[in-house]
């Protein structure tokens, strides 16, 4: 691994101590952009009926992305486990690949 890879790994480990504390939200409107960063621990975002992200516990998030249910768990060491179930909320539209 290169130095950049080492720093990315260290950053992932540091952020894994308190998952959800580093985040950014950006929205656009005619009068200018609205940007919010790191204002507390990220808890929930809802966009229309097709995107919903919500913190379930200190290290776990649930998401609805279209027809898919996504569960994300951040391990203490920084590894991220992702479980995806397509067609959970409506018929599957689009393709899914594992790589």
What attributes does this structure have?
single chain; 99 residues; mainly beta; two-stranded antiparallel ribbon; 1 helix; 7 strands
Describe the structure in your own words.
- This protein has one domain.
- It starts with a helix and ends in a 14-residue tail after the last strand.
- The chain has one helix at 3-16, and strands spanning 24-27, 34-37, 44-47, 51-57, 60-65, 68-74, 80-85.
- It is globular and about 40 Å long.
- It contains one helix and seven strands, in the order H-E-E-E-E-E-E-E.
- The protein is mostly beta strands and 99 residues long.
- A hairpin with a 3-residue loop joins strand 3 and strand 4.
Q: Can you give me a brief rundown of this structure?
A:
It contains one helix and seven strands. With 99 residues, it is mainly beta.
Number of domains: 1
SSE string, helices as H and strands as E: HEEEEEEE
Query: What is the rounded Rg?
Result: 16 Å
How much helix, percentage-wise, in residues? 10-25%
Q: How would a textbook summarize the main sheet?
A: 5 strands, antiparallel
In total, the number of strands is: 7
Distance between the termini: 21 Å
List the total number of helices.
1
Based on secondary structure, the structural category is mainly beta
The outline comes out as globular
